[in-house]
Amino acid sequence: MSAKPTTIKEIAKILNISPSSVSRGLHDHPSIGAVTREKIKQLAQSLNYQPNNAAILFQKGKTYTIGVILPELSEHFFSTAISAIEDEALKKNYTVIFAQSHDDYEQEVKLVEKMKNQRVDGLLVSISKDTSKFDHFERLNSFNIPVVFFDRIPPFKNVHYVACSIENATVKAVNYLLKKGHRTIGMINGPTTLFASEERKEGYMQAITFNRLKFDPSLIVNCDLTEKGTIEAANQFINHKRKPTAIVTFNDYVALFLIKYLKKANVVNEFDVVSFANLPFISYLDHTPIASIEQYPYLQGQKAANILLDLINSPNPESQAYYNTLVESDLVINSEKL
Amino acid sequence: MSAKPTTIKEIAKILNISPSSVSRGLHDHPSIGAVTREKIKQLAQSLNYQPNNAAILFQKGKTYTIGVILPELSEHFFSTAISAIEDEALKKNYTVIFAQSHDDYEQEVKLVEKMKNQRVDGLLVSISKDTSKFDHFERLNSFNIPVVFFDRIPPFKNVHYVACSIENATVKAVNYLLKKGHRTIGMINGPTTLFASEERKEGYMQAITFNRLKFDPSLIVNCDLTEKGTIEAANQFINHKRKPTAIVTFNDYVALFLIKYLKKANVVNEFDVVSFANLPFISYLDHTPIASIEQYPYLQGQKAANILLDLINSPNPESQAYYNTLVESDLVINSEKL
DNA sequence: CGAAATTAATCAAACGTTTGCGTAGTTTTT
DNA sequence: AAAAACTACGCAAACGTTTGATTAATTTCG
């Protein structure tokens, strides 16, 4: 019943030559004559020979596999990035294995360890929300396993990373609102622990001060990104002595919570909302953010994968400078509203 | 710089015993004395020994890897299912490799071949839209690689599959509309080539005839699931001599296209819409389908993965009956509208 | 006390492929 | 015609681990 796959040895035996010659023949090694080579290839073909990957991986000490660790596979951003990573890896004949940390630091540590044991050739990581120590990644250095971070990256430069400049994006968002005439702009930011929150704050301040406006810290409200937290933040704005006329939100979900609440409070028309992520459904909404920052997950995934594959195949990974790639983000104006 | 991982041989040499003893010691083989066993384990621990997976896989001829082939990683349904598959596999210490067919038959065939070469222990597949031949899967039989289909399954029973009964779901949807008093119900169905379209039609007819209503075939319109196609279908209903008061759509996207168009045509209040998928954003919309069929992608992924792992580890896969698992679907009433 | 059983370990082969080195046999060079 | 070079292939080791067969030493039992 169970057909055993053909091996090089069998081909060798049939052709009365050595396995090494078969191997070389199949790889077009110059030391195999054209006649023999063709005989080998033809027989291999007709026996439907398929190299035993496990054996090759083992022999070469390379797995042609890259690991991807990220918080949540089912989030739109990540699933899109994954799609790109998969596509790029396939082109270069690499296999991808995924694992999700579910935003848990302990789990992330375990997964890194597991990936190492799987002997992945390299790792692509988007770190979990509560990761603040990075020695589990540093340990990979001694095994020559390169790591490229993407999107959720550690807050320092001496690693390889691909990310979107949240700061620049925030500047764009705020500038857009300023250009539309808004002078009091609120921001619902994420928890202060997140680097991304820091960046948003920086961008906000940069845009405000560049335009010679006074920065009012009370217009930035930190929020846990839940619906409840968003409502609390919304109330702060509604009751603010300098009530803002526009609000920048941490992401599209927060924007949705916000708009839902603003509608309920019957003040939805008093605010323009700009948000991050540009999720596909945004354009289907009735009351939408007037714009959303597109962070190009596919592109980010693509770049990250290519950098990693470069690192894997670079002869001297030690001497490499760090790839610090910023993907530009774009403010997508919701044309329905124009 | 590059630390070579510790091997069994090295441990053996240090302890002056044979590699086989080390291997057995680490695996609690009874023929290794307790004292030696502990010595082995301690040394392994302190040298941070990690078994070389590639070597084990090669030696065992098993990869502890399952392959997953599906149309599009970034679709919500699939990314959720994947999330489940990953979680289940991890529990049983299996690794998962993914690949996307992008709904292309040729690509699917290639991927199946690639997975076979990767020597996956089993395969989880959601077939591409234009797959109508299945010999690329049948070829796996002779290699003892079990296949479990999920969600998008072939139209016959002699395979393992997990899916949602679209037919039952459609019955539920139509019954719900009938209970709400609708007597003329339209359906925007998918292309006739899709098995899922067939099932929806069956369900529709079953509900209609069970309630002793006359079945009017012109109330089912096939559609290519694009926005353009949806608009054409919508127009057919709007201009229908028996204009329906409710419409069942193939999925949430079609529902969105439909509602968008109905709004533009100023007739959105003349129709109740019920749809499939229950995408998370549905509840954020202003004009939503009044209900959507939840197909529990996480559950489906979970079940499919477990069945596959069962098959992989069953001693006699040949004698197995076929798993034909139907996951119940639920009609989720959009409470915002009630 | 000798045979049988148990314990604790070793030996060697095997998994499939790759690759450095060696070696016939042939051709080219001087 | 001898030396050098090239062609086409074979040999054997190596990668790390597992496992069936074997052996040596110890214990148990009648």
Automatic annotation (TrEMBL), chains A, B:
Q: Where is the signal peptide?
A: none
Q: Which Pfam families match?
A: LacI, Peripla_BP_1
UniProt-recorded Gene Ontology molecular function terms? DNA binding
Keyword annotations for this protein, in alphabetical order, are:
DNA-binding, Transcription, Transcription regulation
Could you tell me which species this protein originates from? Pedobacter punctiformis
Question: What is the name attached to this protein's record?
Answer: LacI family DNA-binding transcriptional regulator
Keyword Transcription regulation among UniProt keywords: yes
CDD domains assigned to the protein according to its UniProt record, in alphabetical order: HTH_LacI, PBP1_LacI_sugar_binding-like
- For the HTH lacI-type domain, which residue ranges apply? 6-60
